[in-house]
UniProtKB/TrEMBL annotation:
This enzyme's EC code(s): 2.1.1.197
Coiled-coil segments on the chain, per record: none
Protein name from the UniProt record: Malonyl-[acyl-carrier protein] O-methyltransferase
NCBIfam families: BioC
Gene3D superfamilies named in the record: Vaccinia Virus protein VP39 (3.40.50.150)
HAMAP family per record: BioC
Gene name of the encoded protein: bioC
Protein source organism: Luteibacter yeojuensis
Length: 296
């Protein structure tokens, strides 16, 4: 589906290094997180198991535990240093579990999750069929998937500034909302609804934006990125191109945020896996379902 791939070992390293600085730079992440959690008021059930995928430093996980104090709330993240940092956000009376894993291989059984929550993590998962097949696997029938991700217009100014300097990939690329929705449907997730919003953040200098990206762990992890140091001349050319966008004393940065929700498929609905389709039933559903052989 995509013509690019992330170096997932580099993604893990980037976020691991940013564990101590992440919360100094996560204003947008917190804003989007609040929106997602507010929308959970429309979910009528009291969940037993809530999974926070790409939990980072656990602020969102702590908010989910506060909202659902009786639920088992689990923080999942690819970077172990992030999960260690998340311990600071786990209240003594409302603790949550922390598990190191990625979104492609969630450490829970089939049909075991009532709410799968993910805030600005799925943009690092370019294999959408694999991602949403895993979401469909772990959700209970009728369970809720709610997430946010970055769209392709994110950091468009920085991408254009680098393009004026050289032809190498310096900025992460993200998938279109329509591709995301199609992939959700293809993996059996029910009634997906997606929204796209654009946020424009401003910075005093282009370097301030780059420092924020580094502090968040959102450095370029494109598998096709240029290895080694970028030449000073190219870097200077990029800064000059970005400076040309300065208005009223600041430089802008666009962030396209896609928010979405869908429901876990009903029991027995097939999902695509590899080259075929798989349908799952509980053993109780299978008992007594065989037709009696009239010749025995």
């Amino acid at each position: 589906m995509s013509d690019f791939h992330f170096d997932h070992r580099q993604v893990r390293r980037n976020f691991g290094r940013a564990a101590g600085t992440y919360e100094k730079h996560d204003a947008l992440q917190r804003e989007v997180q609040s929106t997602l959690i507010e929308r959970l008021d429309a979910f009528p059930q009291v969940p037993e198991v809530v999974l926070d995928v790409g939990a980072g430093t656990g602020r969102g996980t702590a908010a989910l535990k506060k909202k659902y104090p009786r639920a088992q709330v689990i923080a999942v993240d690819i970077a172990l240093p992030m999960l260690k940092q998340a311990k600071q956000n786990a209240a003594w009376l409302k603790p949550f579990a922390r598990v190191a894993a990625d979104a492609y291989t969630l450490p829970v059984p089939d049909n075991s999750v009532d709410i799968l929550f993910s805030n600005l993590c799925f943009q690092w998962c370019e294999d959408l069929p694999r991602l949403f097949a895993e979401c469909a696997r772990v959700l209970k029938p009728g369970g809720l998937l709610t997430f946010s991700t970055f769209g392709p217009d994110t950091l468009t100014e920085l991408r254009a500034a680098w393009a004026s300097a050289d032809q190498h990939a310096h900025v992460a690329r993200f998938l279109d909302m329509h591709d995301v929705g199609d992939a959700m449907l293809a993996q059996g997730l029910k009634d997906p609804v997606l929204f796209a919003e654009r946020y424009t953040l401003t910075y005093p200098t282009p370097r301030a934006l780059l420092d924020e990206l580094r502090g968040l762990g959102a450095n370029n992890a494109d598998a096709g990125r240029l290895r080694g140091l970028t030449g000073k001349q190219h870097y200077r050319r990029m800064l000059d191109a970005y400076e040309a966008l300065r208005t009223e004393g600041t430089i802008p940065s666009t962030w396209e945020v896609v928010t979405a929700h869908a429901w876990g498929p009903p029991e027995g609905q097939s999902r695509r896996e590899g080259g075929g389709e798989i349908a799952s039933f509980s053993i109780d559903k299978l008992r007594g379902s065989r037709r009696k052989n009239p010749f025995t």
